[in-house]
Amino acid sequence: MTPMTLGEKIKQLRQEKGYSQTFLEKRSGVNSKLLSKYENGRIIPTADTLRKLAEGLDISADYLIFDNVPKDGRCQLKDLELQLILEPGRVLVGNAGILVTEVLYRKSGEVKNFIIVDAGMNDLMRPTLYNAFHAIEPVVNSQSDVIVADVVGPICESGDFLAVDRSISNVQSGDLLAVMSAGAYGYVMSSNYCSRPRVAEVMVKGDRFNIVKAREGYEDLVRGETVPTFLKNA
Predict the structure, then answer these.
(1) Which helix (H) or strand (E) holds 167?
(2) Which superfamily, per CATH, for 99-213?
């Protein structure tokens, strides 16, 4: 079967089903990297992608193509008189936030190097949950050598990692790392596993910042809990 572009699919549906009006709806269930690119340590949103799509131009977008079209396929949306309904959601929010973590110490084995940080799987679940990729860069670019290492958290779990076999700057204890594209996946997916309080959320605009959600304390972990009467009297 010859692969079919989205534009061809729409034309086929109009002919076969007699649709007089076609709505193209794109929700947020796509990878956050699809509408952005990562270059030289920076997330660069490709805002013109949405603009071109809204104008009905031909764009290269794998997630809008049906039936195994090659990656260089194009969508042929021009002149189809479509009403485009875009809900980019986490595509925008994901790249708007980072998780900042401090290197606690380094550990080198016969086979692997480990960078142990103070953020764990409870702070960013995606790498552990379904092996999601998050770029990790030093907050301060020291122009140090690049090594291959696992970036892991302090929780005693084999799944407590942020990256495996990652090429990364040769950071040392006390250095800060930025885990990219964490805006839609960090705090909202975090937990208090292993009695770890959730991190603070900070909003930044230019050279200004404000704590918009305070860091949790241990008192927050037990707030709302009560001791059953049958244990009090035991």
Answers:
(1) strand 161-169
(2) Lyase, Ornithine Decarboxylase; Chain A, domain 1 (2.40.37.10)
